[in-house]
Amino acid sequence: MTGSLPQPEEGARRRTLYGRRQGKKLRPGQQGLLETLLPRLLVPATHSLDPKDHPAPLDLAALFGRPMPGGYWLEVGFGSGEHLVWHAEHNPDVGLIGCEPYINGIAKCLAHIERTGVGNVRVFDNDARFIMAALPPGSLGRAFVLFPDPWPKARHQKRRFVCRQTLDRLAELMVPGAELRLATDDPVHLLWMLEQACLHPAFTWLAERPGDWRQRPDDWPPTRYEQKMLAGRRPAFLRFRRT
To answer: Does the active-site annotation cover 218?
Structure first.
């Protein structure tokens, strides 16, 4: 594959935003999918946050086996993969890259992929910022960051994914007119997201009235985990356009 990626670096490997890698023990079927299906979908490993460390950007057409006429979308932290696979089913001409370091979530996502038979999903099993450093500029038509860890303690705010640094990189990766979708159910994190994205010169908030961000868009499918997590809470659905 052109655009081959460098091997892991110990320093960068420690600079991660996620927590545990695996929870409860996997069932035999899940373990089998990790051993058989995942290798065919896995994005080559990269462990550098600096785009300069990638002499050639990742070749997305080679990654998917063909150019995708609908472009390429990125989902950061896909959980169990229900949202990711829904979009793959409904947008077969789009190549979707899902990032998720949690092994149990990856196994559930693989089950959805096997059940639906979609062939336009690829999986990156590490910190999304690593693959963002390897993607070619102007390659993304949409990006999703849905219900990331709000890191509520003040001393942990620097761990929040939505920040100026990651928005700067997303601005480089997204084509003009591309859409960035953010979601949270944490009121403090909501204000943080709005401040970070609204003040960024490359993004324009698309909401014109409160209902635009309080109500879920039709093409924004709920997930079982999300419904369980949000019981009694009010989620916010934020849409921004890359200017």
So the answer is: no
